[in-house]
Q: What sequence folds into this?
């Protein structure tokens, strides 16, 4: 009984580890412009780190 539980636990753990590795392979930093379109206030947006980070600039009229 204990060996069956150990075997099932080991298979489950292996499945979880493989799943995590597959998810991590596909993750990469994407540029902001790949996911979002700035439709207004384009002059108030600064892009940093190859587009992976943006800063929104505020003025008195904002």
A:
């Amino acid at each position: 009984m204990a060996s069956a539980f150990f075997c099932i636990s080991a298979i489950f753990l292996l499945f979880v580890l493989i799943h995590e590795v597959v998810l991590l392979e596909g993750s990469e930093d994407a540029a902001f412009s790949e996911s979002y379109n700035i439709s207004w206030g384009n002059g108030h947006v600064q892009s940093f780190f190859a587009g992976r980070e943006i800063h929104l600039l505020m003025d008195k009229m904002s």
The mean pLDDT is 82. The CA atoms of residues 21 and 58 lie 41 Å apart.
